[in-house]
Structures are given as structure tokens and as C-alpha cells.
Amino acid sequence: xxxxxxxxxxxxSIITLLQHNLEQAGFEVITAMDGEKGxxxxxxxxxxxxxxxLMLPKLDGMEVCKQLRQKKIMTPIIMLTAKALExxxxxxxxxxxxxxxxxxxxxxxxxxRIKAILRRAQxxxxxxxxxxxxxxxxxxxxxxxxPMKFEAYFRKNPLELTLKEFELLxxxxxxxxxxxxxxxxLNAVWKNEFPRDSRILDVHISHLREKMNxxxxxxxxxxxxxxxxxxxxxxxxx
Length: 238
Description:
This protein folds into two domains: 4-127, 3-Layer(aba) Sandwich (Rossmann fold); 138-237, Arc Repressor Mutant, subunit A. Helix content is 41%, strand content 20%. It has eight helices and twelve strands. The longest helix has 22 residues, at 107-128. The protein is elongated.
């Protein structure tokens, strides 16, 4: 069964370009040319992936992303925009987007990124069908992570994480008890896409703490080391 991709963009040329190339790659494509219709289709059609333009009539891409995440719709989202400012990247990712691409872009690169993210999302299905992986779960206090299933639980409650939030949590967990520099974390999770002084890391750490119900001023799991980086530790082991 082919994956369903929702393309939300107000430029007919972009819609045509993406729809043609995505269909040639074997995807089913549905489209919307404004934010309100795009949001409605995302809710009604349950697409496997969303390509979301930033500048849209009626409801902009940031607001579409924000409202979908507020409704616990965790469909992977790649934001498409002509703006290249780091502020825009950070804001989009802060609202829950999984990736970000600047126009003009190569349809081949868009498809490659979609396939990479969908492969990760497919892992839980493969596991359910009997494919076994050797990587064990990670247990740190009341936090349990299944890296190969892309699942995490805190106090037995599932954590609704974006892809980057999950990758960051796994990296910190695999290096538990050791301070990880900002540079190392940015390189591991974002492949140095952002500069060392970027806010994107702090934004994602804040999201993780919020979803784990950590007190911002007195976190017990993810500790801040000012001027250095972050460390994930088991409070029960202290």
C-alpha cells in the first residue's frame, strides 16, 4: 500500500512539481492551497506525511503545525519556505515540525527526506510483524525508551515526541551520566545544521522537560551545565 502525502502550498507550480514527482515515486498525493483546507485534510484524511508551506492564505503554516500538534496529530511534517533565516527554522521546529527545507529545493531531496523519516516510522510495524532487533530498551528511573520502536514512556505514560526530540532523548540516554557538549549534541542530532550558539537545542530540551513534567528550575533528569551542555541522569542513582 502506498503512503499518502498531503502537500499544502499556495503556489500552483510547487503543487504540480511535487505532485508529479511524488506520484512517480509511488506515493498517493492529496493537495491543499490554503492553511484551513490543509488542516481539515490533515484531520480527515490521516495522511502519512505532510509537506507544509510556511506562507499560506487563511491560516499560515506555523499555525497549521501548531494546531495539529495541539490535537496530538503527530504526522511527520516537513516545512517548505522561501525564508532562510535561522529564526524561522527554530520557530518551525519549536512548533513540532520534523524537518525544514528552503525553496528552491530538489524534488529528489524532498523524496529522500520523506523516505528516511517514513522508514523510521515503519520500524514499530516491522517489529509487530515479528522482525526482531537486538537493541534493548533503556531504563533510567521512571523513563523507559525503546530505540528501535521509536517509543518512550515516562511513569508508564507514552511520550508524544517529534523525531528530533526522540533522537535527542535517545542520544542523552545512551550517554547517561556524562555531560554532552552543545556542539556534540547539535552534531549528533542536527548534523551541524545549526551553529553552536543556536537556540534550537535549548528549545528541544525544554520540550523534553515539559513532556516529562520536569520542573524548569529544578529538573531531576535532564540537567543543564551552563556554558557546556546537558546531561541525562537517573535521580534514583544519586
